[in-house]
Design brief:
single chain, mainly alpha, Rhomboid-like fold, two-stranded antiparallel sheet, 11 helices, globular, membrane, Rhomboid-like_sf, hydrolase, transmembrane
Length: 214
Amino acid sequence: MNIDKVLLILIGVNVLFSIKGFNDRLFFDKYKFQIGAINRGEKLRMLTSGFLHADYIHLGLNMYVLYIFAPIIIGSLGIVKFLIIYFGSLFAGSVLTLSYHKNELYYSAVGASGAVAGVIYGAILLHPSMTLYMFPLPIPIPGYIFGLGYLLYSIYGMKKQLGNVGHAAHIGGAIGGYALMLLVNPAVFTQHMNTVLLLGIPIVLLLLFGHKLK
């Protein structure tokens, strides 16, 4: 199986599904994440919403980041474990969003950000010394610092409800990527123990005290 082809197919499905949503409001409303509809039993939205996007910029950014980080996991672990991390992180993002916004019946969201956040976290656990750029800083940032900063900012954003951004999905996806990487590749425990502990601290604190963010 051509690994790159599988990734391109996944990106292609995101693009086609999203464009359909851009041009068909009924389709968009039927498959987006919405608390009330999910509570009524439409659980499929927790998956399908991850293939819809708000606009072309949202779609392009998520697919670009996926294209950059996915090969790091695919090249090291193979396509099956990558797909486990991708879809597991997407589901984890939806679960945390559902839990955090459970009383907001009209809350809705779309995007692959949860899945992408999980892929980013998984890639960082594999290669914590990679360097990344975070706008507007003009200097490279070590991957483990980027991951920690990303999660802390998302927690702050969820607490303050900053912007029209699904911070809960980002956090849930990151937690999913973290946990699933440890599950499918436990060697990272010994290879990068310091990074595992550093990125795990805010996750444990969030799980223990997350209810106080509301």
